[in-house]
Amino acid sequence: METKKQNGVKGKSRGVSAAIVLVLCAAIAVSLFLFVFGNPANFMDNDPNNHPLPGNFLGIVYKGGPVIVLIMTLLLTVLTLSVERFFAISKARGTGNLINFVANVKHQLESGSIRAAEELCNKQKGSVAAVVSAGLKKYEEMETTKEALAKDQKLVSIQKEIEEATALELPTMEQNLPVIATISTLGTLFGLLGTVIGMIRSFSALATAGAPDSVALSAGISEALVNTALGIATGACAIISYSFFTGKIDNITYAIDEMGFSLVQTYAAKHN
User: Fold this and answer.
1) Residue 6 binned pLDDT confidence (cut-offs 50, 70, 90)
2) Global pTM?
3) Positive or negative CA dihedral for 173, 175, 180, 182?
């Protein structure tokens, strides 16, 4: 069994590393901040130290300050990992409709056509099909085994095989989701950090001797509001992404559990 586990893990294709995505997104965020948002053409007198041109969104974002780079890195990371998870989980679901696949396999099981059920798994592919296929092979093995095993022992053997196959599939589906969940909190926190820094600058401008520095005051307020907006947007995107993909994985695991239950119950009903 240990050999089969090792082979299963070795044969699994791992998803994109979140660390690599984070580094690449950080590089892109720095480039965007310096050369796109900080382009002199976005500001009055072509000077990034001046106010942005009226209605120029790029210049407004640039005024959010260096914390914007961190928030943009997190936002780009969420978007990239969301696309990666979409394709990975779509592959895990298989090529056909998952509900129809489960119904068809259950029908073949009830009619005793194990070979036909295995053919359905080969056509469907994906994580559910891989788990069901492992269960079907163990099912067939228990039918043909010459060992003197009690019925309960055979049922436990089939159930254990399904659980082990499931344990090999779940990490692949859940990869990178903890990173997205973490960013849902970090995005908001970095936005709050930028807000606090911007407000400090605003109050510093108000505290200057004589007339307040209107440029410094407006820059501080812009920094506060821009960081707040992007931080909330990043956190919201991460929460939506995490909830969406965990829901998809729950549907897949439900299908796996249903098929495992059907295999065990079918064997129990057909073998006295």
Assistant:
1) very low
2) 0.85
3) positive
